[in-house]
Design goal:
The complex is a heterodimer of chains A (398) and B (325). Chain A contains 15 helices and two strands. With 398 residues, chain A is mainly α. Classes of the chains: A mainly alpha (398), B alpha/beta (325).
Chain lengths: 398, 325
Amino acid sequence: MTTATVPATPAPGLPPSGPGRAAPDRRGSWVPNGAMIATRFMELRRRRGLMAALIVVNIGIPVVFLTFRLVSHAVDPRSYGPAGGYEIFSTMVAGVLFVFGFIVAATLGCTAGSVDLTEGMFRHLVVTGRSRLALYLARIPAGLAVIVPLVAVGFAIVCTVCVVAAPTQLSFQGVNVPVGLSQPAFESWAAGHADEVVCSFNFDLGPNTGPDSTLMQAVNSVCGDGGGPAAVTGGPGTPAATSVSQAQIEDAARQLAQINYSDYSGRFLTPPLPLMLKAGLWLELYAAVGFLVGLGLSSLMGQRTVPVILLIVLEIVLTPLLSHAPIAHLLNVQRSLIGIAVIHLEPGGLPSVFGGGNGGGPQVAEVTESTTFAVCVISAWVVVWTALGAWRMVTRDA
Amino acid sequence: MSTATIDDVGTDRAGDSPWAVETHGLTKRFKDNVAVNGVELLVPRGCAFGYLGPNGAGKTTLIRVLLGLTHADAGTMSLLGYPVPHHRDRALARIGAIVDEPRFHGHLTGRQNLQILAAAREPAARARIGPSLERVGMTQRADDKVSKYSMGMRQRLGVAACLLGDPQLLILDEPMNGLDPGGMLEMREMVTSLVAEGRTVVLSSHLLDEVERTCDAVAIVDRGQVIRQGPIADLLADSAFELQIDCATPERARSLLAGTPWGAGIAVAPDGLRVALAAGTDRGVVAEVNRLLVEGGIPVYRLQEVHASLESWFLEVTTRLGANG
């Protein structure tokens, strides 16, 4: 039997191996190197179908919607409102980018977590001797480097259009109102537009205010029977219109302005910069969580399709369903859903998502939980799924 | 978790073993099926070593166990002198392997796939991408997508991937699969050249003819066990062989030799007389046959020993075991 022990010499043209070269080889380390991350990023970025889907959902949907509104407003400004503004911004962020951002990020995570297995590269990678944990962890920065800029671009487009194409006047409860007034200025403006304010602004007088109050008399006097604001909840019965002086009407308008100031002060022509920054970070947080959960789940299951379906069902069926009302025996389950936890971190000034949220919108969270608890839930989702995915990656037969 | 650098692979005393692969009692079970059954394997360094066995014999499973793609249930093993799995990263740093059909990311080019693999190896591996592609003759197609590659091209790319680590040991599972005759010849030449550089190449294959042409030594595996191993010449020397005799009157020659101890194995063939001789028969028998024929007045034009081919020997060995089992 041949027992030659000739040390291997480099093949013709191949740089030699062995000691004496500069860069150390730490392939036993669990820390991925920059080249691994860069090549994983390249592998994801060159998936044309996946990238097209990510771009269509993250950027295409907002672009199509805003373009339609821009064109419609340009063609018929009386029928179609401006394409931008605070209202459009908050609707796009809470209604579109939040939900779809999670779904596409989860899809990307599921792809990153399973393709090496399904396409037969996992074996090649394991045979390099590189730590399997490092192979797994390299996917995290690579995937985030794909999804974070995409979400940012989609969000930036929404912000840009909402600022550039914002309405020139604020329509508050059907009345065109100047923007950014202080409370005294708002009350003063209301006195100057007393008839409009009295007939349009909402108010809640409470049970102790009788129907013969000055305010009610002013409303009935100016707006007549059946007129007046949409939400008159004064005392029982509506007295017949009586003669009210102009001073009393102006006083009533000031009173209504005072009642509605907190609502008014949260309305803007354009989304404020702090709100845009917070909303952007909030969307990025949810997208990052979606990616990490998808990565862990697909690594655990060793495939892409089922994890993608599970996460879509979670996002567009279970989370909306369980966020609408607290269920006594399932309250902790509801609180532990990732979507509901992230909704509790929604920046103030955005309408609620799925009917939850503690933002500045009209609705409050139905399933209550503290911010600390929400942060713990989010951290747990990220840590647990990452750990499960990494564990399966390390123990799986290749 | 180990974070030690492994630049000293070439000089570490643990890597000084004369064996490229050494296993003792290696066992791998899949529930009730014992795929690798107490395998004792010694692969010397610097040779081409064939690992042969019928389908389902456990060839690929053994390779997967060696490479850490799946765990062993019992036994010990070392690669290039490094005990694995304890020093798996050190061992694999100098090993290249193709297991089963070589598959890559189809949406990437061959070069990009190698970039991914080189990134997982030592930094110097990135500089070997071009030379590796050139060596397997893939430079022209390196920037085409792998999805457009033929099976043979993927095999070549697999070999290029093996070369990224400048390996001392290459483990190639069915490397001839999908190759046309020209490709098989190139692969054979490549294996020969790799061995000439001092590397060890372990070939798992069912193409016995190719193994016989390429390898210096073989191991025969059947039902998870290594039943024979050693240099091909030594193994075949222990097998039965045949003496072909080209003479003037074959029938008369047969009659003349019928009374000899080896007379039972004589047959007349169109090209002359054939005498079957048992394994271990002394070569003096050839001279004795010649003497008898000449003294009997039969002109002898040619006498030739014909040893069994690896294929016929393999079939003989595995069939006998099958019959015994």
